[in-house]
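Researcher: Re-running this chain for the archive, since the previous output was lost when a drive failed. Same request as before.
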Amino acid sequence: MSTIQIPASRQIVSGQLAPVFLVQSISSISAVLLGSGIYFYTHKRFGWDSKQNLLLCGAQGAIYIVGALSASPIAARIGRHKLLRWLHAGLCLTALMVGFSVNQAMAVVFILLYSIQSAAQWPALESLVSIGAPPVELSRRISLYNLIWSGLGALTLAATGSLIEYFPRGTYVLAALGSAVSVVVLWGRSDPADIPAAATHAEPQLLRRRKLAMHLSRLALPATYAAQNALSALMPTLAVIRQFPLQLRTMVASVWMIARWVTFLLLGATSWWHTRPRLLLVAAVAQFFAFLGIALIPSPIQMILWQMLLGAALGLVYAGSLYFGMVLSDGSTEHGGYHEALIGLGSAIGPGAGALALFARPDNPAIGPATIGVVLLLSVIASAVVSARSPVRA
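Model: Regenerated structure tokens:
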């Protein structure tokens, strides 16, 4: 009797990806509860203002870099699944310690500890999603990956206001419970056997376009997270947001997340953007203007419209960085680490610069967003220079 041979990439889809996507889903919710949503928590529980929230955000970004870059060497020694099991055991305990901290200083220590562990999980998850996939299938996988984390992130942030209002302990209890479930899901699983690299470099011109796209997206990625994480820290204190009741504030603040999700959906359904690297330069310009529009324009309608533009730009930059990095490296954890480290870099530089500016000029609330805008402008300039010097003409 003859046997049917299942291709290696399809074996991975059926045997490995379902648990990976489940853990990613859980992690996406937990990361928002103790990431973007934590600033509404600190604002309500500790009475923190923009300066303190931005400072915490910058510190989280700095330590996030360390966690992201540590993932690849550790995964190479013990495997991605074992790394994820250990991380989620630690995340479970750390989330509980955030809630049971007796003072602000202790809470900050555990929030930062949570950040470094959370950062290390994403390169492993991204690699497990990407490994063994040819370019078209890789685009679909990454699209699903992006839709999951961005969609659940938007819903979680929208619900965080009600959670903080009616069940404040849920911010860390639900995060801890999610990590405990992740340990169970990952229990006993091991990494797939090595798979031959996908033939991603067959066409020299396509290779040049992909490299330019990766460079442009990764120049813009720190600015992307400088913008969105600074906004996460600023949103609770913006006058335009405070016009709404608490339950609605996180809903209004999550419009850009919804727009980003729609962008991921459109990008996953098409491939035309794969060969148009300079769209990423356009996205860098768009996110610069959109951030300033949200932070400095007091009209609720205009702020919502700017959020929609920002979400579209952020989605394109993020998808480009992850897709082109993974397609050029055949799904390596190392490149996932670079991608996440750039996220941490932007999260440190943008909010950190904004916090320092506000501490220096506390009488001028616009100085923080304006300083962050300078960081975004530098990204636009760097992207424009690289684009102009590239021999790729499309």
